[in-house]
Write a structure and sequence with these properties.
Keywords: Cell membrane, Membrane, Transmembrane, Transmembrane helix
Radius of gyration: 31 Å
Shape: flat
Membrane topology: Multi-pass membrane protein
Largest sheet: 5 strands, antiparallel
Protein name: Flippase-like domain-containing protein
Subcellular location: Cell membrane
InterPro entries: Kinase-like_dom_sf, L-PG_synthase/AglD
Number of domains: 4
């Protein structure tokens, strides 16, 4: 039947709610991301709280200049802020089936009020002022702005329930309300910023406790959207056995034909920037849609569906595509009879399996990678023929890795449907043993989609068994994975012993006694050290971006980030550069990248970091920025050291020369070194052949920018952590000097064959800090605390990251 008037009203010329009142609620990882981000922001703001800071004075001065024009407006805007929150609450109370939202808002308000009291107490704000700030519209300035915090909590809690225009209006009201609070001198800039962070964190807590809707259209709203595209439907129902993250429905037309409808709703929460970014970072087979629009997504899928059909690949027919009047994007195609995951193995003949393989091979031969081959992507049409669907992630002119990954995924999904033997027989029948051998390196868990991995857990065979059978069918040897050295209690004990010896050695070489260092450590401001520890994990976030830039293969950010944290764990037993290369090669192999190519990617990553380090040192030394202000001393002059004593740099160079001399003079060591030369030559030859393809990354400006930018960000963040550690002892130097010290020491320590640069780094930081004018005992203490927060403590979460990589079969 046609769309009724009630349904038209439900779709709304002015849509208020994003979902039906009874829509299921989910607890989304994006709320965890918002919660963590808000807490980090509060931690950084707490360092300057309660203010005023320079930024506060600058904004106050700007608002004072605007006072004659807009001073009268602040009271109105601040009142609107309150009325808006009251309106959101009353709207939920007056709407049928929305009463549970009131509970969400109550929880968020209570959490926001408590968090405001706690954050204010840490900054030294009297609790009575926090309470008064809830009703006051003027001075005194309060950290945190209570009313802004609670209103933010209320409107952000309601955001997933509201349609997109109302979400944007709410954000605008909160932003203007925060400015009005500053203009009325009820708070300052950091107080308003902290209030917004508190409100977002409280809303995230409420969403994690109660869940929130996904913002998907109702069936009636989909009918209206289809009518906007000229497709008249009498009934719309959810498509059977579709992925939960996809909004796919089946529409029955007036002619009795069923159509498949994929909807990217204007109000869908997972189509927002944060949701889309999280999905792209964590889910295999997905890509980021931060800059793309809903229209571009459906048009992209429709375009590649038709391009595939033009080169002879069987696909579903595109019926309609476009943007409905309310802003929802729809792709309408013919409906398949079933997909591969729903068919019994007996219903799939060998000819049908061959047709599936020929379809994928024909697609790849045209230079198109599907990038999302799963059981739901291989469908059987109503006439019994097979077809490919879901071209949302397809790309043209893809590299060899993407094309082979398509075929590896097809091998796995067909094996899930009909068993290993028949799946391999169909593959060999189309691509031959040589083609199967080329696909074999990509038959890895990391190369599969999340749904396929979930289906594998319920299979009667394992992926290793499939690989073994494929090796036999192809008549080749299974390429082994790189071996990693294990971190054992013995290696940790050795690390602690070496760390103790390093501590004693550094203090002796710096010419200070243990008592003065202990006194300096005892005087440290622990708030700054906690801030340094909180900032330390962000270094690996920047390095993960550099690693993704170094590889031409399609990687996901979260696994690469876990890789960077795990490198900090494995560096307990391997030198820093070796640990990075060893683990990167291992993880890249799990994505189907051959070991030689993976090693090339790792080397490119390391070389880009080296280039950034050298460039920073040269830039600071040749520019007018502050650098080293004195010679590199062996000890503080106040310690009564001999001014003619050799510097620590000379001692370190002497140690290197002695090591080289011993290696050349001792026959056993010399023979071992000479025996390595032929193997090194062979390895370099193999590496050179693999590097030619890997160096293609240098022809991509975006990749080069990611490499250099990630490594630059890591160096700047490390210098920032060093600044916080130095600040904890009441000392400050120019940031360019800290960059110079950190970069020079990192460059030198990374070349040393010592796990984590132990000893070398501590001495280097001590010498470097002395060279920029830091007293000896403070330099030693800063070096120790900096290494503690950047090397000795990170293996704690690095071990958790290593377990995550192994549990998800990335390592």
């Amino acid at each position: 039947m046609a769309v009724t008037a009630d349904q038209a009203r439900d779709s709304g010329l002015v849509r208020v709610w994003s979902s039906a009142a009874d829509a299921p609620r989910l607890r989304r990882p994006t709320d965890v991301l918002l919660l963590v981000t808000s807490l980090l922001a509060l931690g950084l703001l707490a360092l300057a709280a309660p203010g005023p800071t320079g930024a506060d004075h600058a904004l106050d001065a700007a608002l004072a200049r605007l006072e004659p024009l807009f001073g009268w407006l602040w009271s109105i805007v601040y009142a609107v802020l309150t009325l808006w929150a009251v309106g959101v609450v009353l709207l939920a109370a007056a709407s049928r089936g929305r009463r549970l939202l009131l509970v969400d808002q109550l929880i968020a308000s209570a959490v926001a009020f408590g968090a405001a009291l706690g954050a204010g107490a840490l900054a030294g704000t009297d609790p009575s002022l926090i309470v008064d700030g809830l009703v006051s519209s003027g001075p005194p300035v309060v950290y945190v702005a209570t009313r802004v915090a609670i209103v933010t909590a209320v409107v952000v809690t309601a955001s997933p329930h509201l349609a997109r225009p109302w979400r944007y209006a709410s954000r605008l009201v909160v932003g203007l309300g925060a400015v009005a609070a500053i203009g009325l001198h009820a708070t300052n800039l950091i107080g308003a910023s902290a209030a917004i962070a508190v409100g977002i964190a409280a809303a995230a807590v409420a969403h994690l406790v109660m869940g929130s809707p996904q913002g998907r259209l109702t069936d009636a709203q989909v009918q209206v959207a289809l009518a906007d595209l000229g497709v008249l439907a009498t009934r719309v129902t959810a498509a059977p056995a579709r992925v939960a993250a996809e909004n796919v429905l089946v529409a029955r037309t007036e002619q009795g034909t069923d159509l498949l409808v994929k909807v990217y709703g204007r109000d869908a929460w997972d189509s927002q920037v944060v949701g889309s970014l999280w999905t792209a970072l964590t889910r295999r087979g997905e890509r980021a849609h931060v800059w793309g629009t809903r229209r571009s997504r459906v048009e992209h899928e429709a375009l590649y569906t038709m391009l595939a059909a033009q080169v002879g690949v069987p696909t579903l027919d595109v019926v309609a595509v476009g943007l409905a009047d309310q802003g929802d994007a729809l792709l309408v195609t013919s409906t398949p009879h079933a997909h591969l995951g729903l068919l019994e193995s007996g219903a799939l003949g060998d000819d049908t399996l061959g047709d599936v393989w020929r379809a994928v091979v024909a697609l790849n031969a045209a230079g198109i990678a599907h990038r999302r081959i799963e059981s739901s992507s291989v469908v059987v049409r109503t006439d019994g023929s097979v077809a490919l669907a879901d071209f949302d992630a397809a790309a043209h002119a893809s590299d060899e890795g993407d094309l082979r990954t398509d075929q590896a995924r097809l091998l796995v999904v067909t094996a899930l449907a009909v068993g290993i033997d028949r799946a391999l027989s169909a593959a060999v029948g189309v691509v031959g043993p040589e083609g199967l051998a080329a696909v074999l390196p990509y038959v890895q868990p990391a190369a599969l989609g999340s749904r396929t991995r979930a289906e594998l857990r319920g299979a009667s065979w394992t992926l290793d068994e499939l690989r073994a059978a494929a090796v036999t069918a192809a008549g080749v040897e299974d390429p082994p994975l790189e071996r990693l050295r294990r971190v054992t209690p013995r290696s940790i004990g050795r690390l602690l012993l070496v760390g103790l010896l390093v501590y004693v050695l550094v203090t002796l070489l710096a010419g200070v006694d243990l008592a003065s260092v202990a006194s300096a450590l005892a005087s440290a401001d622990w708030a700054w050290l906690v801030a340094a520890l909180a900032l330390s994990p962000t270094i690996q976030m920047a390095l993960a971006g550099a690693t993704m830039g170094a590889a031409t293969a399609r990687l996901r950010y979260v696994p690469v980030l876990m890789l960077q944290y795990a490198i900090q764990f494995i560096s307990l037993v391997l030198p820093a550069t070796a640990a990075r290369l060893a683990l990167e090669v291992r993880v890249f192999q799990k994505f189907g990248i051959p070991a030689a190519t993976a090693l090339s990617f790792g080397l490119i990553d390391s070389v880009s970091g080296f280039v950034v380090q050298v460039a920073l040192i040269v830039l600071i030394l040749v520019s007018g920025l502050p650098g080293f202000t004195s010679a590199l001393p062996a000890a503080s002059s106040t310690a009564g050291s001999d001014p003619t004593s050799p510097s620590l740099v000379v001692l370190l160079v002497a140690l290197v020369v002695i090591g080289v001399g011993v290696t050349l003079l001792v026959p056993r060591l010399r023979h071992r070194l000479t025996a390595l030369i032929p193997r090194a030559r062979a390895a370099l030859a193999d590496q050179g052949r693999a590097a030619r393809s890997a160096l293609g990354v240098l022809r991509r400006p975006g990749k080069v920018a990611a490499m250099l930018g990630g490594n630059l960000g890591a160096q700047l963040l490390q210098a920032g952590v060093l600044a916080l550690c130095l600040q904890s002892f009441g000392q400050t130097v120019s940031f360019s000097q800290l960059i110079l010290v950190n970069t020079a020491v990192s460059l030198f320590a990374g070349l040393m064959p010592v796990p984590g640069g132990m000893g070398v780094a501590e001495v280097g930081f001590t010498v470097g800090l002395q060279a920029v004018g830091v007293p000896s005992e403070i330099a030693v203490s800063t070096a120790i605390t900096f290494r503690l927060v950047t090397f000795y403590l990170p293996p704690v979460w690095g071990a958790a990251a290593m377990r995550w990589l192994r549990r998800n079969e990335y390592a």
